[in-house]
Design brief:
This protein starts with a strand and ends with a helix. It is an alpha+beta fold. Strand 12 and strand 13 form a beta hairpin.
């Protein structure tokens, strides 16, 4: 069957010479300029014909590889009832990110951000015995999240296309197998898409579960930061990087000593006043965890990663305390808070592992203009809970081998979770086991950002001339440019039809009234892998082939050019 030939003279396509003023990222600028997408409202995007082709090609690759591991495709509603999300607790956990609405009868609904609850209900309805499992179900569907500040074009919108799949097994061994199958499928998917990516350890956060990995595409526009080690290959989202500090002997330090430190409410002013490095001081950040004031202790030369803290404490809501909060707690002296005499009493005390038992610090004395030195963890205060909460910095020791870490930005294109029984417990999903007794089902959850993959590819493969798609997901195999008048246009159309009849996908720029220069610029901007130029040599039956990525050109007879392109597929 002949592939479709698309003539630009009859296409909905308007390219732009300049990017929109609000375009902050490369993918945003180029996808709009090349006529792939148009903004409908903040965080809402219309996919135009070329963009829809690329989006569908990504979805096709995802679908083929999911089918290859035995997954079954379904399509669940995007408009969902409130009740299942109340059962799981996520109706409140999602907070303002959830689109909530009410029907004419007063029923509460939401637009689905992910579908763990609904898939669990579906399997509960369909599976009654261990013989019905294992099963992997997936869908490719639009998801919704009410982002406070949609940005970066299609990379962070309020609706987006996603493949979400879910595995259901009767035991943890089955879950491990499903997780491995997905991991291997994702490796094949991203290789076929032509994406450069890293598999990094991640925290499960509100999703729960025992294992979690992200697939990140390195890009300047990425909103995730990951750490990697060149020495041993370790890689993790910075939220999952851990540190181990051996405990010291608390008795090795002098007694606690209070210091008169007027006008030193910051680490910088304190360190300068006492003549000590900031690393010798203990910073105590006060936050509210589900409304309860909690102190977070980290070395004074480090910052608390609030995102990391929130992930560790999810689904609890974490907020920084305000002046109003201090006003209601006179025992908390702003700028002079210390854990001694307060930790576990005035507030729960969370600390970074660097605040290890036996370490001594200079910190607040809980009185105005006063600090204390030789405040020893394990002697003068206790830590209620240790969490890795500092902002990871380049050169921090690798948790695996101790060498220095490097940091890089990345776009999250996939995430896999071993959820375990969080949702099956919530919905009491049991099947009859081999022994004739009920068995609680265990789950995995696996996502790929289909529309995000388009953005990531644009970021990674574009050059200073425009987009430059990998062949697998490009909107066409060949972009034919009629660079001239009637002779060139007639030959361009004939060549395109022959290529289409051979099974190639073809764009033909046969637009009248445009100069060859404009058509050449548009061909570079649109980014089809191969450009076939019908120009001055057309009367002699010759055309020019150009490789979009390398820029290499070659003039050939028409028949030879067609033969070469069809042989390459």
């Amino acid at each position: 069957m002949a592939a479709r030939v698309q003539y630009l003279s009859a296409s909905l396509l308007k390219t732009l010479r300049e990017a929109p003023a609000d375009a902050e990222t490369l993918n945003h600028r180029l996808l709009v300029r090349a006529g792939y997408v148009r903004r409908s409202a903040a965080g809402l995007w219309s996919w135009l014909p070329l963009g829809k082709r690329v989006l569908d090609n990504v979805a096709r690759v995802v679908r083929e590889e999911m089918d290859a591991i035995g997954a079954q495709e379904v399509l669940l509603p995007a408009l969902l009832p409130r009740e299942p999300y109340e059962v799981s607790g996520r109706y409140e956990e999602y907070g303002d990110l959830l689109f909530r609405l009410r029907d004419r009868k007063g029923g509460d609904y939401l637009l689905g951000p992910t579908h763990e609850e609904i898939f669990t209900q579906l399997v509960k309805d369909q599976a009654t015995s261990y013989k019905d499992l294992p099963v992997i179900l997936y869908q490719i569907q639009t998801k919704y999240r009410d982002e406070a500040r949609p940005r970066s074009g299609i990379l962070r919108g309020r609706e987006f296309q996603m493949k979400d799949s879910y595995s259901f097994d009767t035991d943890d061994e089955g879950l491990a197998t499903a997780y491995r199958l997905h991991r291997e499928a994702y490796i094949r998917i991203f290789a076929r898409l032509g994406l450069d990516y890293r598999i990094v350890s991640a925290v499960s956060g509100a999703m729960g579960g025992s294992a979690s990995e992200e697939f990140l595409a390195p890009a300047a526009a990425g909103e995730d930061t990951f750490a990697s080690c060149a020495a041993c290959g370790y890689a993790a989202n910075t939220e999952a990087v851990t540190v181990t500090v051996p405990p010291a002997d608390p008795a090795a330090h002098p007694p606690l000593e209070e210091l008169d430190t007027p006008d030193t409410p910051t680490i910088e002013t304190l360190a300068a006043h006492v003549g000590a490095p900031a690393s010798a001081t203990l910073k105590n950040l006060l936050v509210k965890v589900d409304g309860e004031i909690t102190a977070v202790g980290v070395p004074g030369d480090r910052e608390v990663d609030l995102g990391k803290l929130a992930e560790h404490l999810a689904p609890a809501v974490v907020e920084v305390v305000t002046a109003e909060d201090f006003a209601t707690r006179p025992d908390l002296v702003r700028g002079y808070v210390g854990p001694q005499g307060m930790a576990g009493k005035a507030f729960p005390y969370i600390a970074d592992p660097r605040v290890a038992p036996g370490t001594a610090w200079i910190t607040g004395a809980n009185r105005p203009d006063t600090h204390a030195r030789n405040v020893v963890c394990g002697r003068d205060f206790e830590v209620d809970r240790y969490l890795d909460v500092v902002v990871v910095e380049p050169g921090d020791p690798c948790p695996s081998c101790g060498a220095g870490l490097s940091l890089e930005r990345g776009i999250e294109i996939g995430h896999i979770f071993q959820l375990g029984r969080k949702y099956t417990d919530a919905f009491a999903l049991d099947v009859l086991g081999r022994e004739g007794k009920p068995v609680r089902v265990t789950m995995g959850s696996y996502g790929i950002g289909v529309s995000r993959a388009v953005a990531a590819l644009a970021e990674q493969t574009a050059d200073d001339r425009g987009l430059c798609w990998p062949k697998e997901i490009a909107p066409a195999d060949v972009h034919v440019v009629a660079a001239g008048k009637a002779v060139q246009t007639e030959l361009a159309r004939d060549v395109a039809e022959r290529l289409g009849a051979a099974g190639l996908r073809v764009l033909v720029d046969d637009r009248a009234g445009l100069s060859p220069g404009v058509k050449f610029a548009d061909a570079e901007l649109i980014g089809v892998p191969t450009i076939l130029i019908v120009g001055r040599a057309a009367p002699d039956g010759r055309v020019e082939l150009k490789d979009r990525r390398t820029g290499e050109r070659e003039e050939l007879p028409v028949d030879e050019a067609i033969e070469r392109l069809t042989a390459a597929g």
